[in-house]
Amino acid sequence: MTEDTRPLVQVVAGILLDQNGRYLLSSRPEGKPYAGYWEFAGGKVEAGESDFQALQREFKEELGICILVATPWLTKVHSYEHAHVRLHFLWVETDQWTGEIQSREGQKWAWQKAGDFTVAPMLPANSALLRSLS
């Protein structure tokens, strides 16, 4: 039996809503694993950061928006070829963020309705979550 040496990476993702009850999804930019796949925006939690601080930083860096409040919602571990990822999903209501969304890393973004997602392919770790939102 071989020991699994893949690292456990802490990641945050924001379930961001707009005034029409849609969820924000973004594509992974070129140069990252699973480039072109769609996901809830977020990223790695850096040393010394809380999940909320990481979410604020990632949304500012990637999308140019400010997260004011986020509620921890769900945690899920997913195994990829390169790493195990512990995803901390945080819920962000429409009045809990400000700013105009920008594509600061060349990624695409889209507002999507639960049960009627029109973007693909989806990142494998998000499949069960997307079903639960529907």
Please render the helix and strand layout as text:
Blueprint: E1 8-16, E2 23-27, E3 38-39, E4 42-44, H1 51-63, E5 66-67, E6 71-79, E7 84-92, E8 97-98, E9 109-112, H2 127-133
Parallel strand pairs: 1-7
Antiparallel strand pairs: 1-4, 2-3, 2-9, 5-8, 6-7
Structure at a glance:
The chain has 134 residues and is α+β, with helices and mostly antiparallel strands.
Uncertain regions spanning at least 5 consecutive residues: none
Query: How many helix segments?
Result: 2
The percentage of residues in β strands lies in 25-35%
Q: What number of structural domains do the residues give?
A: 1
- Mean of all residue-level pLDDT scores: 91
Please tell me about this protein's structure:
This protein has 134 residues and is an alpha+beta fold. It has one domain: Alpha-Beta Complex (Nucleoside Triphosphate Pyrophosphohydrolase). 15% of the residues lie in helices and 34% in strands. It is built from two helices and nine strands. The strands form three sheets. A four-stranded mixed beta sheet has the order 4-1-7-6, with helices on one face. A three-stranded antiparallel beta sheet has the order 3-2-9, with no helix packed on it. The chain has a two-stranded antiparallel sheet with strand order 5-8. The radius of gyration is 14 Å and the shape is globular.
Could you list some keywords that capture this structure?
single chain, 134 residues, alpha+beta, Nucleoside Triphosphate Pyrophosphohydrolase, four-stranded mixed β-sheet, three-stranded antiparallel β-sheet, 2 helices, 9 strands, globular
